[in-house]
Amino acid sequence: MKVTSLSEIFLKKKNINEIILIRGWVRSRRDSKSGISFLNVYDGSIFNSIQVVIKNSLSNYFTEILKLTIGCSVIIKGILIFSPSSINIYEIKAISVHVIGKILSPQKYPMSAKKHTLEHLRNFCHLRPRTNIIGAITRIRNTIFFNIHKFFQSKKYFWISTPIITSINTEGAGEMFKISMLDMKNYEYQKKKHKKNFFNRTAFLTVSGQLTLEAYACALSKVYSFGPVFRAENSNTRKHLAEFWMLEIEEAFSNINQISKFSEKLLKFLISKVLKKNFLDLSFLNKNINTKIISRLQSFLDIKFFYIEYKEALNILLKNSHLFLEKIYWGIDFSTEHEKYLVEVYFKAPIIIYNYPKKIKPFYMKLNTDGITVSAFDVLLPHVGEVIGGSEREDKFEILKENMKLLKDTQKDYIWYQDLRKYGTIPHAGFGLGFERLILYITGLKNIRDIIPFPRTSGNLNF
Ligand code: 4AD
Ligand code: MG
């Protein structure tokens, strides 16, 4: 018999009085005195669970049904009916309940019916997908992933798989993870024995696919990449991961104006899709995390982003400098308290800050005519701060070469990158979007470790 998912039921793809087969896990069990049990069963395909009504005339009622606990897996055949209760829309009158997997020691089961904190759940990343909250986040994550591809494909961008193993440090700053097949315990001994490392040079996990993506933009015009990137930043904050997903786009003949407006369009598109596709998931978060989530997302679709130059943002902060711990000066890299003030207190809206001081940005950004700022922009959202960072790229060979002096003895690794300016250079621009940061904003959660299935942060690699 064909299996029916709960999403098919709740999206009205099944008929009332139809006999159906569902598979899933028990969320709860309640027994009435009159010999009827009520199971709440979910299968993850949609936020909802469904109530299954089981009579004691079923052959395994006393031997198995009355022993079911939260987490047991079951296959149920039954008749789909409208629920007489006002809370549930549908329920299933069981014809048979096949118990597949039991919970071996229910009193020790970490996902018991008790409400657990998100911090507690982080110790059980392999079991937490069973909770309502992680289920909701996961489905939202999936919607955004799918619609990122949909958005770019519909606009005729080409998807490029940029490498994960690399020899270069795109962003220049920050620690990278080195990779090697040598055993760290006997590193020196092995190095002698093998004589050389696998690549015959130092290899890293990439912090960004941008530079290689540019190579493709300089031929296919409109390209994007979407994959995991790695940063060995020791920032134990609620917004930083050592492994996170980044969407990067790169566009030939584009500029900062076009690309920053485009980033605003992308964010609105993705949020509109989540509102449509994940309303039940959002409703749960609205009830349990923050009652403003849905209204905030709805108003996001029409909100006007503020575009301000770095120097304007700096002036606003200078006028209110007594509010901040850190001294405000030209060239400061805004910290969380500054971003928070600008976005949540001053503008009370998403903002795009552009034209940053050259000295705080990477070598590849295009120098403005003032000689001290670059055509860079950051998109800051309330609650999470920077979600997107991008820029026009330096397209002049001589200036790029000069900037690269900063890279000192690693310059030789970027000769190929200079070729892109030597052979038919073009103005071009792009940006990177932190996938988990965006989901942090959408879901209203506080900590990025609850957004990615198996978080990797400093001192934490448990799975
Ligand atoms: O601003 P970033 O460092 O920009 C780049 O890497 C550029 N090469 C992108 C490009 O132009 N193609 O990173 C982009 C975004 C940030 O805005 C932030 O949302 C996210 O990536 N991000 C992080 N997310 C989670 N954990 C971290 N440690 C992050 N660091 C950056
Ligand atoms: Mg940045």
Explain what you see.
The mean pLDDT is 95. The protein starts with 5 loop residues before the first helix and ends in a 20-residue tail after the last helix. The chain has 463 residues and is an alpha+beta fold. It contains 13 helices and 16 strands. It has helices at residues 6-10, 118-121, 132-154, 187-194, 210-220, 256-277, 279-288, 293-300, 310-319, 336-347, 397-403, 415-422, 435-443; strands spanning 19-31, 36-42, 50-55, 73-82, 90-101, 158-159, 165-166, 178-179, 203-205, 222-230, 243-252, 306-309, 351-357, 373-381, 385-392, 428-434. Strand 1 (19-31) and strand 2 (36-42) form a beta hairpin. Helix 3 crosses helix 6. It folds into two domains: 6-109, OB fold (Dihydrolipoamide Acetyltransferase, E2P) (Beta Barrel), CATH 2.40.50.140; 128-450, Bira Bifunctional Protein, Domain 2 (BirA Bifunctional Protein, domain 2), CATH 3.30.930.10. 4-amino-1,4-dioxobutan-2-aminium adenosine-5'-monophosphate binds at residues 170-171, 208, 210, 231, 233, 240-241, 244, 246, 248, 386-390, 430-432, 434, 436-437. Magnesium ion binds at residues 378, 386, 389.
